[in-house]
Amino acid sequence: MTRHDPAADRGTIVVIAAYNEAAMIGHVVAELVREGYDVVVVDDGSTDDTAERASAAGATTLRHAANRGQGAALQSGLRYALQQGARVLVTFDADGQHSAADLPRLLRPVLDGEADVALGSRFLGNAAAVPPARRVLLRAAVVFTGLASGLRLTDAHNGLRALSRRAAEHLDLQLDGMAHASEIIDQVAGAGCRLVEVPVNVRYTSYSLAKGQRLGHAAHIAWDYLFSKLFQ
Amino acid sequence: MRLFQVLALVFVAAMFVVSARNLLRMRARPLASAFWLLLWTAAGGAILAPDRTTQVALLLGIRRGADLVIYCTALALCVGFFLVYVKVRQLSREITLLTRELALQGARPPADRALSRQQRAGE
């Protein structure tokens, strides 16, 4: 595993939104901290000891008094990271699907100034492990994002992203739930930020699949996003 | 006049007075108040002279006044649900903003800063 060089990261903060992730959050945070990253975990109103385990593993923690959704939690974390002077911000999932080993590759275009936003894509790498049902949903998300934002992406709903400070400052997520993924792309693209996709690995476990999105969620995400575009 | 008409008119008159007071005391937006005043006036007219609704319905290509009232009620309910839904989303947004401010004020460093430094050093 390539060790992250804190001296070269120029102020990188990893933001993790977590809801009832006590089983995994300690491992996720510990892996990132071992690699030298500063980690902020936003506990989105968990009813277990997610925040305590994240803190014990080395993360700064923020706690939402009520569960507001992943989009809301990420926006809180991004805002905190900006207040701390972060020059590069990373969003990272709490369920163990993402790997800290992918961060150097993800950060490279942003650190080198080639892009403002680097989006992780499981389909640019080895996508054989993506379960069929999940693959269909993710493809639908790609089509939907393409129609909504005009961008051609291979993986529109991957939670692993690196944003420059400039890109993060343009974000003001209005959608608290899972539709934030489309909203992030919409807002950074609308602000003229340069986007690139970077191959990343996604680890599927029974735990992460149980927590993942379903078809019913997809319909709600689409509705949430479209309503906000039309009426907000 | 039938008992139902009397009771319904009393209700409509009371709602008209409430809407008028809200408008005069600037408690509601003028456009919204005007809408409600118009609505209660139309409701009062339909209750006082139900046969007139048939004349209005025929003008609109609807056979019966009762059908016109039902269609208007259904439309009003749809608009009402929509406005409530928008309001709920707005309130939800405000709750999120409040929750965020509280979370930012209560940010906590890692449980053991020294442990974090050790972990980074790979000890």
Could you walk me through the main structural features you see in this protein, from its secondary elements to its overall organization?
The complex is a heterodimer of chains A (232) and B (123). Chain A has 232 residues and is of the alpha/beta class. Chain A is 42% helix and 16% strand. Chain A contains nine helices and seven strands, in the order E-H-E-H-E-H-E-H-E-H-E-H-H-E-H-H. In chain A, strand 1, helix 1 and strand 2 form a beta-alpha-beta unit. The model of chain A has no long low-confidence stretch (mean pLDDT 88). Chain B has five helices and no strands. Chain B starts with a helix and ends with a helix. Chains A and B meet through helix 1, helix 2, strand 3 and helix 3 of A and helix 4 and helix 5 of B.
- State the separation between the terminal residues of chain B, measured CA to CA: 92 Å
Low-confidence segments of chain B, ≥5 residues, pLDDT <50?
Answer: none
How does the overall form of chain A come out from the CA principal axes?
globular
Q: Cα-atom Rg of chain B, whole angstroms?
A: 28 Å
Number of separate helices of chain A = 9
Helix content of chain A: 40-55%
The rounded distance between the terminal residues' Cα atoms of chain A is 45 Å
Mean pLDDT of chain A: 88
Q: Report the sheet with the most strands of chain B, covering strand number, pairing sense and barrel closure.
A: none
Q: What's the β-strand tally of chain A? A: 7
Give the CA-based shape of chain B.
elongated
Q: Structural class of the secondary elements of chain A?
A: alpha/beta
The arrangement of helices and strands of chain B along the chain is HHHHH
Mean pLDDT of chain B: 87
| Uncertain regions spanning at least 5 consecutive residues of chain A | none
Report strand order across the widest sheet of chain A: 3-2-1-4-6-5-7
Could you state the oligomeric state of the chains shown?
Answer: heterodimer
Annotation field: number of helices of chain B: 5
The run of helices and strands of chain A is EHEHEHEHEHEHHEHH
